[in-house]
Amino acid sequence: MAATVDRAAALQRLRARLRDELVVAALGNPAYDLFNAGDRPQHFYMWGAMGLAPSVALGVALTAPEATVIALEGDGGLLMNLGSLATIGATAPANLVLVVFDNAAWDLTGGQPTATASSTDLAAVAHGCGIAQTRRVATLDDFDAAMAEALSAPGPWCVVVDTAPTPRDRVKPLVALRRRFVAVDDFIDAAVASAESAT
Amino acid sequence: MSEQVWPQRLLDALADAGVGLLPYVPDGVLAPVLELAAARPEFTLVPLTREEEGVGIACGAFLGGGRAALLLQTSGMGNSLNAIGSLAMAQRIPLLMVVTERGGLGETVSTQIPFGAALRRVLDAVGICWHEITEPRQVAGVVAGAAQQCFVSRVPVVLLLSARLSLESA
User: Which of A7, A43, A75, B145 has its CA 20 to 30 A from that of A166?
Assistant: First the structure.
């Protein structure tokens, strides 16, 4: 299947849908495109620890069970930490939504193909790890519909998005992100507030 | 059940410090800790596939407004170093780790020795604070102090459970 979804456009759609949800964005493209779609205190941007975005989101989800927590990861990152799918499947947090932008490449380093280009089906792996609510989408509208469902029904969810290569003119908001990168207290305040508003 | 007193004291001190989430990779020395924790409602145990994953989960727990302690053995520190540097240290997220010493006194598995012998120097080189516990009477005070240093000053802290500790009967 041709990879068709533009990640920046998908994150603009998701950003428009967000209310109180907490979002953990993996380093690189997910962080850049989420920030470009519109920053908010409930965003946690990583700039290292490749592969750990699903694990960070799981930690948030387990300690802030009243909040909905979204992890944004790529195929390269998830392949570094496939074990996170097993742990998410085993702990089964109903409030966790993992979004995987699968462009079958290490996009930021020159487009070298990952294992999903040839053989690995990340949706099948997620399903095999016990994440029953797993979807694979290949259009912007299908992504939007899957996220609407994921944000309204119990999970854990895994939405694997067939993603197009990143446009060469995409802006990396490096300076602004550097400031946000260490401003973790706004995120913690938002997580604690979501717990208090639910009680 | 263990005849040793330190596992109970360790869990009491962690609970007093507000720690609720315990991601872990099991270890023979940790077995009584895991068994006792499973019976206490204030703790949630999360078995991991690999220790590095637990660095992310423990940091996420703090971001969610809670506190975690990552339980692992010496070899797992080797699996976790870059995540500690590029997530916990770079983003100033506190990370409390309880590490059982391998590769030291009484070690029978030769593969544990290279990293175990280097562990303290590796922690120093990376700039990770560590405090060694060798006797059960030290547990309450050192754990309380380490948790305060970790969560208030927002630095990663290793509580190193010495091989000597598990040789103690009480």
Answer: A43
A199 chain-B contacts, CB cut-off 8 A: none
pLDDT higher at A157 or B107: A157
Q: What is the pLDDT of residues B84-105, one digit of tens each?
A: 999 999 999 999 999 999 999 8
- For the domain with range B6-167, which CATH number is right: 3.40.50.970, 3.30.43.10, 3.40.640.10, 3.40.50.720? 3.40.50.970
CB nearest to A56's CB, from B46, B59, B82? B59
Contact A52 B62 (CB under 8 A): no
CA distance B82 to chain A (A): 7
C-alpha span between B143 and B6 (Å, rounded)? 11
Contact check, Cβ <8 Å, B21/A44 = no
> What is the domain count for chain A?
1
Mean pLDDT of A83-92: 98
Residue A94 lies in a domain: yes
ipTM score of the complex? 0.96
Helix A53-63 vs helix B51-63: crossing angle, to nearest 10 = 50
Q: Is residue A13 part of a domain?
A: yes
Mean per-residue pLDDT of chain A:
95
Q: Is residue A149 part of a domain?
A: yes
With cut-offs at 50, 70 and 90, classify the pLDDT of residue B168: low
- Would the CB atoms of A87 and B57 count as touching at under 8 Å? yes
Evaluate if pTM is beyond 0.90: yes
Q: Per-domain residue ranges for chain B? A: 6-167
Residue A2 is assigned to a structural domain of this protein? no
In a mutagenesis test of the B interface, which of A23, A45, A62 is the best target, namely the one with the most B β-carbons within 10 Å? Answer: A62
What is the CATH classification number for the domain harbouring A25? 3.40.50.970
Contact criterion met (CB < 8 Å) for A60 and B63: yes
